[in-house]
């Protein structure tokens, strides 16, 4: 049986989906989870996903309040609306979790990711890589006679597009931070 990947907005019909209030639409959601910054909390949160077979597309974690020992976990995941609601409810039941926010439904948000891309090339390919980096506002953070390391910040789609264009020019390696996100306004 082959794996079937469903994009946001598409549907997969099932004979078992007899309830009209349930949706087969696979959606991408960005969750911001505020937790105590203590040993084992991240493992418990991630264990919730792995134990139930939920996928994590992006994961970032950092302490946001040194005095209050609070960290923010940003998770990008996909699932039907029912699965997303189940994930949020189960996250909220984990004891060190203080808040769970679904930035995808709470209003406008800002998402950014940082990536480093190593590109090797000589001659025309080297010039073209620099030209494209300028268009994408990527910075050269390291350079040798045979390669560059570019730093690019933006949406995941922007980074994907830049990496795709660098592929034929000599893309060697990519390192990505994962998505950091905040809701807009108050």
Automatic annotation (TrEMBL):
Q: What are the ACT domain coordinates in residue numbering? A: 30-105
> What is one term from the GO cellular component aspect held by the record?
cytosol
Catalytic activity annotation: 2 pyruvate + H(+) = (2S)-2-acetolactate + CO2
Q: Which domain of life is it from?
A: Bacteria
Q: Which GO terms describe its biological process?
A: isoleucine biosynthetic process; L-valine biosynthetic process
The record's comment on protein family reads: Belongs to the acetolactate synthase small subunit family.
EC number(s) reported in the record: 2.2.1.6
Identify the keywords attached in UniProt to this record, alphabetized: Amino-acid biosynthesis, Branched-chain amino acid biosynthesis, Transferase
Quote the function comment for this protein: Catalyzes the conversion of 2 pyruvate molecules into acetolactate in the first common step of the biosynthetic pathway of the branched-amino acids such as leucine, isoleucine, and valine.
Pathway(s) = Amino-acid biosynthesis; L-valine biosynthesis; L-valine from pyruvate: step 1/4; Amino-acid biosynthesis; L-isoleucine biosynthesis; L-isoleucine from 2-oxobutanoate: step 1/4
Record's InterPro entries?
Acetalactate_synth_ssu, Acetolactate_synth/TF_NikR_C, Acetolactate_synth_ssu_C, ACT-like_dom_sf, ACT_dom, AHAS_ACT, AHAS_small-like_ACT
Q: Does the keyword Transmembrane helix apply?
A: no
Q: Which Pfam families match?
A: ACT_AHAS_ss, ALS_ss_C
| Name of the protein | Acetolactate synthase small subunit
Q: Which organism is it from?
A: Aquicoccus porphyridii
Subunit details: Dimer of large and small chains.
Recorded GO molecular functions are:
acetolactate synthase activity; acetolactate synthase regulator activity
Task: Kindly report, in one word, the top-level EC class recorded for this enzyme.
Answer: transferase
> Does the record's keyword annotation contain Zinc-finger?
no
């Amino acid at each position: 049986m082959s794996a079937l990947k469903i994009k946001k907005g598409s549907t997969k019909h099932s004979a078992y989906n007899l309830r009209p209030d349930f949706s087969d639409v696979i959606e991408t959601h960005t969750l911001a989870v505020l937790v105590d910054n203590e040993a084992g909390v991240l493992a418990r949160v991630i264990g919730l996903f792995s134990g139930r077979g939920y996928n994590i597309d992006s994961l970032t974690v950092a302490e946001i309040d040194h005095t209050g020992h609070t960290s923010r976990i940003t998770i990008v995941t996909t699932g039907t609306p029912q699965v997303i609601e189940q994930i949020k409810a189960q996250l909220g039941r984990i004891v060190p979790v203080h808040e769970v926010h679904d930035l995808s439904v709470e209003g406008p948000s800002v998402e950014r990711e940082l990536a480093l891309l190593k590109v090797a090339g000589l001659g025309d390919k080297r010039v073209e890589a620099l030209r494209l980096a300028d268009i994408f506002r990527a910075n050269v953070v390291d350079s040798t006679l045979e390669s560059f390391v570019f730093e690019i910040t933006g949406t995941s789609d922007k980074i994907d597009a830049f990496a795709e264009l660098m592929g034929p020019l000599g893309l060697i390696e990519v390192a990505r931070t994962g998505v950091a996100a905040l809701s807009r306004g108050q």
